[in-house]
Request: fold
Amino acid sequence: MFSKLFRVCRDDSHSSSSEKLKQTLKILEEKEVILQKKISQEVDRAKGFTRANNKQAAIECLKRKKYYEGKMDQLGTFQLHIRNQEKKLQQDCHPR
Reply:
């Protein structure tokens, strides 16, 4: 009864949850780096197509760039949620 009242946490569950959140955050950061590379590649390709007077191909590159930017925004949101979960987990196990 008191454990529910005072939120006593178990160290094993806390550490495993914390580890999973850290691993997920690391994976999301790696995906973000990959997307940044793809965005820069699409910009370079669009510039090349513009120089070659291939306007349609340049537009397609910019569309893909915009798509990748949207995915990066989603990853940023996911990272924010994971960081909030980590903070909440720490607060639950170490009440003030």
The mean pLDDT is 88. The CA atoms of residues 49 and 58 lie 5 Å apart. DSSP finds three helices and no strands in the chain. The radius of gyration is 21 Å.
